[in-house]
Amino acid sequence: MATITDVSRLANVSKATVSRVLSGSRGVREDSRLAVLKAAEELNYSPNIAAQNLATQSTNYVGVVLNTADAASLNSYLPLISRKLKSMKKLMLVQFAESDHEQQSALMELHSQCEAVILINGTINTSAFERVLHMDGVMSDAHASVGFDYQFAAESACRYLLGKGHRKIALLVDDLEQGSCQDLLNGYKNALQNSSLPYDRRLILEAKHQLEQSLLGLINSFTQYTAIVVKRDSYAAEAMRIMREFNIQVPKEVSVISLEDSPLAQQLNPTLTCISHSSEQLADYCMDNLQTLLERSIQTMKSSPLISGRLVSRESVSDL
Fold first, then answer.
1. Whole-model pTM?
2. How far apart, in whole angstroms, are the C-alpha atoms of residue 230 and residue 214?
């Protein structure tokens, strides 16, 4: 049985183009459209039922691609999205992915089956696709992306620590090549600059695929620090674990603050001080954009404001 890959190869176009042609989307060159239709006919290619429904704009499926690098999203986002989609009488198709390649593949598959796709914590640019919404990920299109104000969150966390007397603050992010992590770094730098403190590159850590190594590198270095700001609660948990092994007391010797506030934050010992963001509000913004997208009125879609967090003080930060 022929696949969408076979059609794209024979027509010499991308899978995304094949998907757009078979779904009846606009913006495809006439020669490409004819090539796809001819290839599909020669290969006797029949899209699955979901894709056929899409061509008549009658499918009830909305795809969700979840980046499994952030397991906390399973608990915070999926139930919210599922509940809201049910109220819209839509069905949810979910795929889990981690690497950029896996995200691209999952997006490609769901794009051919669903009216729209929501990419949660995505790290890939999807400007080549139509009907894709970003949720707490790459802000590739202001009209199709909703997310948190990470610059404000990082600056707020640092100002809170500075108010507690901390002057040597480390920052742990995912990957500095990501836009949200650059926002974190900018907020961090702003806080230091406003307090006339120097910026020390040695205090900037990247988790990527080597979280433990990054933390061990900081602990084993001669770089002085009294506090760490982390993007995710899971990073805080790992930092606390490693510090415990090195007999470093939190918060007596090192304070830790997170920019997430998932259920994990209250399960740690000590409980985690956070800049908390509303997942419910983020889901509401995303569903508003989805509704506009499904009504085929993307031109009227309003840019969603970035969601600011609020400080939740617990036990992981102390005064110097």
1. 0.77
2. 12
